[in-house]
Amino acid sequence: MSRSESLAEYLRAQARRRLDRVESRDEGRNARCALALLDAAAYAAALPDDDPLILMLDQAGCFGPLGCEEFDPGEAGTALIRHWQGGEPHDLLLALPAAIAAATS
User: Fold this and answer.
1) Its domain of life (predicted)?
2) For the chain, N or C: smaller number of CB within 10 Å?
3) b/e per residue, 38-49, with b = 16+ CB within 10 A?
4) Distance of alpha carbon 80 from alpha carbon 65, whole angstroms
5) Using one digit for the tens of pLDDT, what is the confidence trace for 11-70?
6) How many domains does the chain divide into?
């Protein structure tokens, strides 16, 4: 599996997680988040593995120390993804390395 596909699969899993959540008075927040994550997953799946965004995520350690493991953004990256409310997919991917770096500093 390519790094882009691994990233897309992770984002799709997080979208499914949001769709499965049942909260009273969420006013559609989980559905909006899930749609935003599915949009980001589609965007990520179309990126080549040498795209600068994928390389930034690799440098941030999201694909393991050797860059060949499944996508895992760590706790800080997961928190950012789980609370993503929408926006441009590349904005989410750009925000991940900074969130990861801030958590490890």
Assistant:
1) Bacteria
2) C
3) bbbbebbbebee
4) 21
5) 999 999 988 877 778 787 888 899 999 999 999 999 999 999 999 999 999 998 776 799
6) 1
